[in-house]
Amino acid sequence: MLPPELPPLPALTRAEGELIDQYLEIIDLLGRINPARAHDTYSGLRAAQALVPKAVALRDALALMHQRGENELHAPTLTRALRVLDGERRAARVTLPSQQELPPD
């Protein structure tokens, strides 16, 4: 049996797509660094080192949008794109775990 089909991504400009991609990559890295969820320092260190070029790429995507006159972010459309790309689950790794998720001390 095939998994359920995901809804299609909304129409995005190339720069909006790059913005979403870079944002999610940074969220993934921050989730790996999160001390409340991390397992070891080495993976956090590697993720922190990878943040710099990803932040530059995110800045460049936003700068390109601004240069092209794309001065407004269309939040409903970008939110749909983030949801299709599993942004809620990915962003949840950046937050503190609930009390139920914590192992006993």
Shape designation: globular
Give the total of beta strands.
0
Radius of gyration: 16 Å
Secondary-structure-based class equals: mainly alpha
Oligomeric state: single chain
Portion in strands? under 5%
Uncertain runs: none
Q: What is the N-to-C order of secondary-structure elements (H for helix, E for strand)?
A: HHHH
| Count of helix runs | 4
Helix percent reads 55-70%
Terminal Cα span: 42 Å
* Average predicted local confidence, pLDDT: 91
Describe this structure in words.
The protein is an all-alpha fold and 105 residues long. The chain has one domain. Helix content is 60%, strand content 0%.
Attribute tags:
mainly alpha; 4 helices; 105 residues
Topology:
Layout: H1 14-33, H2 41-67, H3 75-84, H4 87-92
Structure summary:
The protein has 105 residues and is an all-alpha fold.
